[in-house]
Amino acid sequence: MPASYAYLGPEGTFTEVALRTLPEAATRELIPYVSVQSALDAVRAGEAEAAFVPIENSVEGGITTTLDELVAGAPLMIYREVLLSITFALLVRPGTKLSDIKTVSAHPAAQPQVRNWMRKHLPETHWESAASNADAARLVQEGRYDAAFAGEFAAARYGLEALETGIHDAENAQTRFVLVGRPARPAAPTGADKTSVVLWQRDDHPGGLRDLLGEFATRGINLMLLQSRPTGAGIGNYCFCIDAEGHISDRRVAEALMGLKRICLQVRYLGSYPRADVRPGELQSPRPGTSDDEFVAAADWVARCQDGRF
């Protein structure tokens, strides 16, 4: 396997900035790809060891392009996550004034984060989506668009200047990025982990989603992301992307996954990995009745009952 990481490019994306915060990135060749799909396909094809892509932002939730790519195709697995605070700069060719801007471009995930700013400062400007924010900056450099929302750090790389900086509609906005590789044994639990799965119902029936969520709730497992995505099989057919607290080696998480495997048409395990928002030891203890020791004690009690030793 090549010692390289694919990432959503071109150079100068927020994805690249977040990727470089990983210590192991210093020992890998970092290769930009034009889209999330192409970066993940590079991993599936064995052209890269792993891919680093955005998966969620605090303004709009899950990034559907990434979720859909993880739902479909050959299975992949999440190994790490990184949180990055996001503010945008309005990048233009030197000499451009705000009144000159008729077209602006950025990644679709950026639009909800700057929508109100645009309404106030660029009410007549036409929005065009780009494969990434850095790609939008490249297109401005080439003269295709008048301005791009991107990281201020991308200005020098593309010969642009930041006309405005610190642009954001929501304070403390963050984007979550994940390192994705081929399926393998998950890393050992840290005590502050997250498990990601995709669930498909056997059929559409009243209380169907409640049945899925109940497997988590009865075991005291908190959910951190729940997003439905169309399966492509027709209107009303959805699968559910879920991030849950805990590691697959935790008894409560393992039992929840076993329960889901029984009642779901399909379960795709996307990995158990360290959380980026907390450190081990910062989380509260599991709810009473849901710790590993209590699961072991309950199983032992059942065994004793079966042996007539209760």
* Cα-to-Cα separation, first versus last residue: 54 Å
Give the helices and strands as they follow along the chain: EHEHEEHEEEHEHEHEEEHEEHEH
Mean pLDDT: 93
In total, the number of strands is 15
User: Unreliable stretches, pLDDT < 50, 5 or more residues?
Assistant: none
Strand content: 25-35%
Structural class: alpha/beta
Shape: elongated
Number of helices: 9
Cα radius of gyration in angstroms: 22 Å
Task: Tell me the layout of helices and strands.
Elements: E1 4-8, H1 14-19, E2 29-33, H2 36-44, E3 50-57, E4 61-62, H3 64-71, E5 77-85, E6 88-92, E7 103-106, H4 111-121, E8 126-129, H5 133-141, E9 147-150, H6 154-157, E10 161-167, E11 174-181, E12 193-201, H7 208-217, E13 223-230, E14 238-245, H8 251-263, E15 264-274, H9 292-306
Parallel strand pairs: 1-2, 1-3, 7-8, 7-9
Antiparallel strand pairs: 3-4, 3-11, 5-11, 6-9, 6-10, 12-14, 12-15, 13-14
Helix pairs in contact: 7-8
